[in-house]
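Field log, afternoon session.

UNIT: design team B
ACTIVITY: writing a sequence onto a fixed backbone
BACKBONE:
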């Protein structure tokens, strides 16, 4: 092993790691950025359908899940969505707001990767891509990291190795192992921003391909109003991905299929001679309306239902409950819920409270953003803050 001495070792050249390395490098620190992947930042590349939803205009602490909901406040305030937008603009990149404050890069996600790479290079950072990380040791005055055929001796070590989602492109649990090695706790992890699966008898399979526009979906106390897509295995679409982060196994998911009006009033005003499926199809996709009507017995003209049955149909339209059997797991999840417990990390610097010089940033930390650019903003903000403090 060849021994090398450097100020900062950053493990993981994803969104948070590159931001941190660039910031530390431009502050004059000597930095090496190590990643086992041979291709740079694959998660950024596949993000936002290839257009990278790089931030959100409405970023605020309430849009993040963590055992400590206050933890994100300092980093998000130190480096805001507007700071990142300025960086994007300074590279001549353009962007557009798709919906709900979500900003996408017109030049595609490759342009965001090129921008971050240029920032890292501007900081004079040493790259080590395609390099396996071996043992990490705490030594007097810092750390030693075995990586490839080199041992790096550093005062500051930053863990930016992300979560467990999409192992196909390089996600591993090394960040959690390192946290445990240094005595930090882990909040149990699970797949989040992920499609939900249902029992086969739950009507969904036969409806694959149906889209419910702007349904309101609720799990526990949170509700999201966006599209829902029915698939062969269950349900997906932005509203479902959002509630998946809050959903607990065994709990029902509630769908309000007519969030803009009272279903009871709608049914009362409908033609009494029309079939229930025909009436429901005025507000819902036809295939869905037919399957739903079949759930209330034979599909009959409205006048043949008893008042209590009409009331039951109205209730179901505003609060249709289904208990998911599970999720599609890390293979299909955008992020990992849980992670390194924030109790062990100083929120103002991202340094471990009991291990001077050790930092945790990005998705490896117990911080999970909503769908819509919030997770990248956490990566940029936490990366920047650690970069200032290494
Ligand atoms: P990230 O995963 O980016 O980087 C971790 C790095 O560590 C990787 O380069 C990996 O190779 C490396 N690594 C892991 N284990 C290692 C080991 N053992 N040795 C060496 N290196 C190792 N978010 C958002 O805000 N807007 C969006 O549009 C999307 N879209 C999206 C689509 C899809 C399909 C997914 C899967 C995810 C998203 N996300 C998203 C989420 C976003 O990609 C994610 O939150 C950030 O990439 C997290 O940044 P990190 O730097 O923390 O981890």
């Amino acid at each position: 092993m060849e021994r090398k001495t450097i100020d900062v070792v950053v493990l993981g050249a994803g969104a948070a790691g590159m931001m941190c390395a660039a910031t530390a490098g431009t502050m004059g620190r000597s930095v090496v950025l190590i990643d086992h992947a041979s291709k740079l930042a694959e998660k950024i590349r596949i993000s936002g359908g290839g257009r990278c939803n790089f931030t959100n205009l409405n970023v605020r602490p309430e849009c993040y899940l963590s055992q400590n909901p206050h933890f994100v406040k300092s980093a998000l305030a130190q480096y805001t969505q507007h700071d990142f937008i300025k960086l994007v603009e300074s590279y001549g990149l353009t962007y557009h707001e798709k919906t709900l404050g979500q900003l996408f890069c017109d030049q595609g996600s490759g342009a965001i990767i090129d921008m971050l790479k240029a920032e890292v290079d501007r900081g004079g950072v040493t790259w080590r891509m395609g390099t396996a990380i071996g043992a990490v040791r705490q030594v007097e005055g810092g750390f030693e990291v075995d990586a490839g055929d080199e041992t790096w001796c550093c005062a500051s070590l930053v863990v930016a190795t992300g979560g467990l989602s999409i192992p196909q492109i390089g996600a591993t649990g090394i960040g959690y192992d390192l946290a445990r090695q240094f005595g930090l706790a882990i909040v149990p992890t699970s797949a989040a921003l992920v499609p939900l699966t249902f029992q086969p008898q739950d009507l969904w399979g036969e409806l694959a391909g149906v889209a419910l526009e702007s349904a309101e979906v609720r799990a526990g106390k949170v509700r999201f109003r966006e599209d829902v897509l029915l698939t062969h295995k269950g349900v997906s679409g932005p509203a479902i991905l959002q509630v998946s982060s809050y959903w607990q196994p065994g709990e029902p998911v509630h769908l309000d299929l007519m969030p803009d009006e009272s279903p009871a009033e709608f049914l009362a005003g409908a033609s009494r001679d029309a079939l229930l499926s025909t009436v429901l199809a005025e507000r819902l996709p036809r295939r869905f309306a037919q399957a739903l009507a079949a759930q209330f017995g034979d599909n009959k003209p409205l006048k043949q239902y008893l008042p209590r049955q009409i009331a039951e149909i109205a209730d179901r339209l505003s609060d249709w409950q289904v208990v998911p059997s599970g999720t599609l797991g890390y293979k299909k999840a955008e992020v990992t819920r849980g992670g390194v417990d924030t109790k062990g990390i100083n929120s103002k610097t991202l340094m471990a409270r009991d291990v001077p010089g050790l930092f945790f940033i990005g998705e490896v930390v117990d911080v999970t953003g909503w769908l819509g650019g919030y997770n990248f903003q956490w990566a940029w903000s936490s990366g920047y803050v650690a970069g200032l403090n290494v």
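LOG NOTE: The chain has twelve helices and 21 strands.
NEXT ACTIVITY: expression trials, pending approval
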